[in-house]
UniProtKB/TrEMBL annotation:
GO biological process: signal transduction
Pfam family, one: Ras
Keywords: Cell membrane, GTP-binding, Hydrolase, Membrane, Nucleotide-binding
The keyword Hydrolase appears for this protein: yes
PROSITE patterns: RAB, RAS, RHO
Residue ranges, annotated region (Disordered): 169-194
Organism: Cylindrobasidium torrendii FP15055 ss-10
SUPFAM superfamilies (UniProt xref): P-loop containing nucleoside triphosphate hydrolases
CDD domains: Ras
Protein name per Swiss-Prot or TrEMBL: Ras-domain-containing protein
Membrane topology: Lipid-anchor
GO molecular function terms noted in the UniProt entry: GTP binding; GTPase activity
Compartments it resides in: Cell membrane
Keyword flag Hydrolase: yes
Length: 194
C-alpha cells in the first residue's frame, strides 16, 4: 500500500467537510459547523490497489491563511473545493492553486483535483459549465461537479487524486517481497491524504 498526505482546501462554507465526511464515512452532514481542522484516516482500493488515506480537512482559506502554507508544504495531493452556488468561491480556488505552485516551487505535476460542490442545488447554480471548461483547460487540472448530499461523483474525484499521487510519487510504495522500505514509505504501508 502507498501512503500520501492530502489537503482539502477552499473558502469557508463551500462544503469541504461535507465532501470529506461523505467520502470517508459515507454519510451526509446537513448542518454547517465551521471547521478549524479535522483529520481523517480512510482505507480505500483504487484500481485494485489498496491505500490508507490521511485526509486533512482545513478551515476556510480566508480564515487561516498562515496555516495553509504549513498544510501545503506537507501535502502531496490537494482537493480544491468551491461551491457551484457561489461564484466568488472559484476565485479562492485560483488563489489556492497559485499558492500551491508558489510554495511547492520547482515541483511539477502536483496532484490536484478541483471539486465543485452542491450539484444537487442546480436551481441556485452560479458557476456555469462554460466557466469550468475554460478554467480546466487553462489550469490543466481535472474538475469534478459533486453532491455530498446525493453522493454524486465524490469518489470519482478522490480516486482521480489517488491515481495522480501514485504517478507523481512512485517511490511512496514498499516492496513486500523484499521486506525492505523504500524512501518515502512508512512501516505500515498506508496512504496519507491530508
Amino acid at each position: 500500500m502507498r501512503q500520501f498526505n492530502v489537503v482539502v482546501l477552499g473558502a469557508g462554507g463551500v462544503g469541504k467537510s461535507a465532501l470529506t465526511v461523505r467520502y470517508v464515512h459515507q454519510i451526509f452532514k446537513n448542518e454547517y459547523n465551521p471547521t478549524i481542522q479535522e483529520d481523517y484516516r480512510h482505507t480505500v482500493t483504487v484500481d485494485g490497489e489498496p491505500c490508507s488515506l490521511e485526509i486533512l480537512d482545513t478551515a476556510g482559506a480566508e480564515q487561516f491563511t498562515n496555516l495553509n502554507e504549513v498544510y501545503i508544504q506537507a501535502g502531496q495531493g490537494f482537493v480544491l473545493v468551491y461551491s457551484l452556488t457561489q461564484e466568488a468561491s472559484i476565485k479562492e480556488v485560483d488563489n489556492l492553486r497559485r499558492s500551491i505552485q508558489q510554495i511547492k516551487g520547482t515541483e511539477t505535476n502536483i496532484p490536484i483535483v478541483v471539486v465543485g460542490t452542491k450539484l444537487d442545488l442546480n436551481n441556485e447554480r452560479e458557476v456555469h459549465k462554460n466557466t469550468i471548461h475554460n478554467l480546466a483547460s487553462r489550469w490543466n487540472v481535472p474538475f469534478y461537479e459533486t453532491s455530498a448530499k446525493r453522493n454524486w461523483h465524490v469518489t470519482d474525484a478522490f480516486d482521480d487524486l489517488v491515481r495522480q499521487m501514485r504517478t507523481r510519487y512512485p517511490h511512496a510504495t514498499s516492496s513486500p517481497r523484499k521486506g525492505r522500505k523504500k524512501a518515502g514509505s512508512h512501516k505500515d504501508g498506508s496512504c496519507i491524504i491530508m
